[in-house]
What does this fold into?
Amino acid sequence: MLIAEELEVALSQVRLEHAPPNEKLYGNPLLGGLQATGNSNAVRAAWQPLRQAGATARVMLIAAAAKRWKVDPTSCHAEHGEVVHQASARRIKYGALAGDAAQLPVPEKVALKRPEDFKLIGTPAKRWTHRARSTERPSMASTFGRRG
It folds into this structure.
């Protein structure tokens, strides 16, 4: 939800994947660097880094579109997984820009959305694990095991 919020995409446009085991990259700083969650601290630990990642990707995608269209990036904005240039009515999906955006330098600082501009954060969302659990498809470490 945090990345989707900053990227201006719907939750339905996001695919969630578990991080591979690597405490150096994915360790929870609130749990001493362990790659784990607990004590309701996952969102507190990830709040800033995940929003920053989403905002950085959004800025880079906008920059890639602006470069392609030869317009100022400030004349473009992101919405629903696309970059839009209102003045010319052009729009392009993120997927078509991903390669170009990946070639751009990563900005060191980007502006995060203001809380009053949130569309996803603070709204109810279905838990992605419920369907998997109800169909007995393992989705979390606690759901793996042997029967009997």
Notes: The radius of gyration is 18 Å. The helical segments are 2-7, 23-26, 42-69, 94-102, 129-134. The first strand starts at residue 76 and ends at 79. Residues 2-15+42-102+110-141 form one domain.
